[in-house]
Design brief:
By secondary structure, the chain is mainly beta. The chain has one domain: Ribonuclease P/MRP, subunit p29 (SH3 type barrels, Roll), CATH 2.30.30. The protein contains 1 helix and 6 strands, in the order ββββββα. A hairpin with a 5-residue loop joins strand 5 and strand 6. It is globular, with a radius of gyration of 12 Å. The model has no long low-confidence stretch (mean pLDDT 91).
Amino acid sequence: MRNKNNLLFHTFIGLEVEIINSSDFALIGLKGKIVDETKNLFVIENSNKEKKIPKIPSTFRFLLDDGSFVDIEGKKIAFRPSERPKKIKL
């Protein structure tokens, strides 16, 4: 189960997310479900549309399985999902 302590070591696909800060002001407040992830992008689905969101200039609020929220700066997770467990420094 994903929680605040181990979220960075899991995949983000399937989580609900909200963009709480971004250099692109049009993205702030965007909510949806993560359907794909690359090194530098999240693909978020909302209203049956997919939107590509760059990780580095954004801050994300993730809704976890237990109903709690975690805020993470995109530059801290800008790795390939398979490489993230090796590169994350807590």
